[in-house]
Amino acid sequence: MSPSAIQNDNSALGGATKGAQESNKTTPLNWNTYYNVINGKLETTQETRCSINPATEEKNLPVPVSTKGDVDRAMEAAQAAFKTWSKVPYTERRKALLEFADAVEAEKEGFSKLLVQEQGKPMYWARFEMDLAVKSIQSTANLDLPEEVTEDDNRKIVIRYVPLGVAVGIVPWNYPILLACGKIAASVLTGNPILIKPSPFTPAGALKLVELAQRFLPPAVVQALSGDDNLGIWLTEHPIPAKISFTGSTATGKKVMGSAAKTLKRITLELGGNDPAIICDDVDIEAVAPQIATFAFLNSGQICLAVKRILVHEKIIDQFRDAIVRHTKTLKFGEGHEEGVFLGPVQNSMQYERVKGFFSEIESEGMTVAVGGTNPTGKGYFITPTIIDRPAETSRIVHEEPFGPIVPLLSFSTDQEAIDKANNTLYGLGGSVWSKDIDRANNIAKQIEAGTVWVNAHFAMESHIPFGGHKNSGMGVEQGVSGLKSYCNPQTLYLAKSKI
């Protein structure tokens, strides 16, 4: 099968949106074929592979397996595109992104159906991801990155942010479209070509997303390669990229950091979390407990910012446990097209086996199960939402991130004990504090060692606000103006006002 090309002549300076024919911009996507995107062309490969539908364990449609030669060609094309794209006016780059966002929104149903099939999430939450993805592009595109200017009698000092060069975006399998859109928008707006590497577990969505982007951007400004375990190493060690934006596990993030160090690539790492929710003794239990269950089990617990540890004041822990158990029992799990499903399957067999490992310790360590505890048999990587009632503080369920629908319920007696327990982790991504006493809650929140902390909310993200982790949860930030700056080199110009 030979490569097929998309006509795209947007390589001229200032021609960010003029190349593709208007009719091509609105032509519906074909959801039956998936290609690499290299230098504006759709390409297949000699070898292909299939991801697995986690609800049925059936094979999805084939996707390419890229070679080292594919990586080299894509990198060279991106390097060439940087010379012109970095000089395209900021306003034209913004315009191209906003048109791309409109096109993604127009294809919302197609992407949503693919997310159900490939990622496993219920249709309601697949559509929710697509809404967030569109908002992410739009919000980023509308950010400004102005020069900072100071002056005195003899000189004008300008601090500006200039494009870095070629970027690589490595995208995980839990939110494959949303996270790809965030990386694309920030890189493209700041004048940097980007190559997207999707997870091998969810490759098709990002390939189709980047295929759609070709209608609005010059060749090689946004590219995508699908592959096996070799692809990430080839990309992170390649001499051309100036920037790696990685979202995934802490263990893999450390490997990315090591590879990037060989050529001093800039890196942004958004890694794992063991996020606490601190429940004070004055909360409205019946109002708060369902929210905590939702934020623990949303996306089957496969969110870096999901509630991973529920810390409840000892005065109310029994009542709170009973309330959260009642709500958890109402959460239906199943295939994503089924009516009323809240949880889909765990996304892949490797993660499924890891999560089941935590269940195997329930009996061996004598844990008390508040709800759940046993998993269904048959097809699909389904896990029953489970809460462990006050396990040992030294247990694995307390200190590790399962990244699945199983969480510990822990107690505390004082605010300081809650803070100490919340911070007793190698991670520092997110957390939340819940109390009717706002001053009390705000004071606790300020002492949590995490990149993002909410009061009386959780996972309430704003795409124009920076997001990043402390400790082993990451390095640098994404989103907002700070996220844009991570794709730039700061440059200070001391400009003379008078002759020597």
Report what the structure shows.
The chain is α/β, with parallel strands linked by helices. The protein is built from 16 helices and 25 strands. The strands form 7 sheets. The protein has a 7-stranded mixed β-sheet with strand order 15-16-17-14-13-19-20, sandwiched between helices. Strands 10-9-8-11-12-23 form a 6-stranded mixed β-sheet, with helices on both faces. Strand 8 (167-170), helix 6 (176-189) and strand 9 form a beta-alpha-beta unit. Helix 3 runs antiparallel to helix 5, helix 4 runs antiparallel to helix 7 (203-213) and helix 5 (123-141) packs parallel to helix 6. It is globular. The N and C termini lie far apart (66 Å). Mean pLDDT is 95; it is low at 1-21.
Name a few traits of the molecule:
single chain, 500 residues, alpha/beta, seven-stranded mixed sheet, six-stranded mixed sheet, 16 helices, 25 strands, 21% strand, globular, disordered N terminus
Shape: globular
Helix content: 25-40%
Largest sheet: 7 strands, mixed
Overall radius of gyration: 24 Å
Arrangement of strands in the largest sheet: 15-16-17-14-13-19-20
The secondary structure category is alpha/beta
Number of helices: 16
Q: What are the low-pLDDT stretches, counting only 5+ consecutive residues below 50? A: 1-21
**Proportion of residues in extended strands:** 15-25%
